[in-house]
Design brief:
Two copies of one chain form a homodimer. In chain A, 33% of the residues lie in helices and 18% in strands. The first copy, chain A, has helices spanning 124-137, 151-162, 181-196, 211-225, 228-234, 250-262, 268-280, 286-292, 313-325, 349-360, and strands at 12-20, 26-36, 46-50, 76-77, 82-83, 88-92, 107-108, 113-114, 143-149, 167-173, 299-305, 330-335. In chain A, helix 1 (124-137) packs across helix 2 and helix 3 (181-196) packs antiparallel against helix 4 (211-225). The longest helix of chain A has 16 residues, at 181-196.
């Protein structure tokens, strides 16, 4: 185990009654979540971390007997950017997902079987509303900060719009106010790959999931998370190592491996639900976005990566512009780090410094907790 | 029919005996080709056009009863950039393909059945060698010019290396001296999609082809041929038009349509053979590339598109640099046209002007025909 780790942590489940979705449909609400650090007596040090497409509630520390820590362990822990000596950090699995929160794997009380593809459509707004219920359950009425990258950034933004009085600081990394046609297109190919799998059966695949389709979806996605440069450095034009026969190139062999291992930890229906939530999320652009952000009371740190071609820097600039139009305090930083969209997940000192500084700097926003 | 068209043209087949591939394996060689214009008495006006991944010999003019002309009709014809009043233009289908030249659909004389996946691996060098045989058959010993975009550009480059004494001018559009890991990765996903299809049967699918896999491969490819900007302009975040139910977004619906229509005109084995030829092609980079290009005697026009993220401009610059190291005359132009990798296929006046000017300019190379 690494030094400065949180040590052993565990995922808990909160049963939270029902949630009425934006569509008007009601679902039984369970949320898988983890917490790190201690809530202060006046409950003003809570930070909500929102995960991306394939993430989960396990953001930091180690599960018992696990070799690898949570997905953002580099940034969350004692003395880290999200310093658990100071902050009470909460991370929950999104609804529609498959890591413990309500989603297609949830048992439908009416049938005694998993909802599967009868689970209703879930939006980014619904994810945020479910997180609000979790915070209520935990007795947290104010967020010192909400932070997330990619889909997590969309949730963070949505928090400031849906609950402007709750969120003091907001960190959005490698994200956007809405998907472009190209971003939708990559997700669409992933969904089509799943639905083209002979096991698909309109989502009612039971114990015989569309593994090949889901693996293909992941392979496509994985390419978009890396940069041209990072792939060249990692694989170049090399042949695969060892006796691997699934591709004539190292990069192909790696993608096949990534696809095949993904199907053991992700549900195909969830992949469809979560990518649809991503694609349908829209706070607009330009004037529309400015209007949507006109009521926010948070202050913002927006980080984009120059090597991120999936969520290009101009999308972050759009958000910054719309915030500035509203005279909302916002710090924007474009980081030159070569790992593509995945950059925000990987340790780099610049991101750590920016987060730490943003969290400890004085509020510029007229915000009374 | 448009004005200034070549009018009705037809694809011919040349039976050319056997071709010994670079691997040492011999294949029966047939080449599908078209010619436009007239070969001059001293046979010094021949231009070879090389097509890209899914192209064919039908580069210009109209087939009988066809509504759409050949794939580069905007650039080939009377008074066009490749002016058929002046030049004798030849375009042939690549071997390994499925549009009439030898490939997986060819009948294996030993079995009386299509070679299918028993067809031997074909390289870009083999494609060029087969074109050389076609030119010999047509009585053409010198090429006034060889030109192509994407995979066609690789063939054009290879021509100048393999037959330096034959090629006078060479035009390379939106291409590269070798695929990057990212380019290989996109092709690999396409191949994996085909091989994941339950109809695949190791390539011996007969009349029951892996249509869904091939459609997925095409969908992935299609995204990479367009630019972020052109997709935004064409589709934005719009829902599909009409009653189309295969996607919730116009861009998804378009991709599904593109995938489904592709399977009617392309063979899955050929897709694998041709993408492997692309991925294995390598003239190297930097010093290695300079050495490989040290014997070329052609002069070059290299065109790259700033919106082409699949074949980024830096790859064209690599070629230019290596030519300049060898003091080979080269004109380089980066065109600002928003259509992504597909730009070279689409009419734009800048490309037309550059090609026309390059063809009519005096030779700077010390080249005696």
């Amino acid at each position: 185990m690494k030094s400065k780790s949180l040590g052993i942590v565990e995922t808990k489940i909160a049963k939270l009654g029902n949630l009425v979705l934006e569509s008007g449909v009601s679902i039984p609400l369970e949320i898988a979540y983890e917490t790190y650090g201690t809530l202060s007596p006046n409950k003003d040090n809570a930070i909500l971390i929102c995960h991306a497409l394939s993430g989960d509630a396990h953001a930091a520390g180690y599960h018992i007997n696990a070799e690898r820590p949570g997905w953002w362990d580099e940034y969350i822990g004692p003395d880290k950017a999200f310093d658990t000596n100071k902050y009470f950090v909460v991370c929950s699995n999104v609804i529609g997902g498959c890591k413990g929160s309500s989603g297609p794997l949830t048992i439908n009380p009416a049938t005694g079987k998993p909802f599967a593809s009868s689970f209703p459509f879930v939006s980014i707004g619904d994810m945020v509303n479910s997180q609000k219920k979790l915070l209520d359950y935990l007795g947290i009425s104010q967020l010192f900060c909400v932070a997330g990258g990619s889909m997590g950034g969309m949730q963070a933004l949505q928090w400031t719009v849906a609950y402007p009085e709750v969120v003091r600081k907001c960190i959005v990394l490698a994200s956007t106010s809405e998907h472009s046609a190209q971003q939708i297109a990559f997700n669409e190919v992933g969904r089509q790959a799943i639905m083209s799998d002979p096991n698909w059966n309109n989502g009612n695949y039971g114990n015989n999931p569309p593994k090949k389709g889901l693996a293909l979806a992941r392979m496509v996605g994985h390419i978009t998370y890396l940069s041209d440069e990072s792939m060249r450095e990692k694989f170049g034009r090399n042949p695969p190592r060892g006796n691997i026969q699934n591709s004539e190139f190292a990069v192909g062999s790696y993608l096949v491996y990534q696809g095949e291992s993904f199907v053991d930890r992700f549900d195909a229906n969830s992949y469809i639900y979560v990518t649809k939530a991503l694609d349908h999320f829209s706070l607009g652009k330009g004037k529309e976005l400015s209007q949507r952000l006109s009521k926010v009371r948070s202050e913002f740190l927006i980080i984009a990566y120059s090597s991120d071609w999936l969520y290009p820097v101009y999308q972050s600039r759009e958000i910054v512009k719309a915030l500035e139009v509203n005279a909302v305090p916002v710090s924007f930083c474009e980081i030159n780090f070569p790992k593509g969209h995945d950059s925000f997940l990987i340790y780099n000192p610049e991101q750590e410094h920016l987060i730490r500084h943003f969290l400890t700097s004085e509020f510029r926003q007229n915000f009374s907790i």
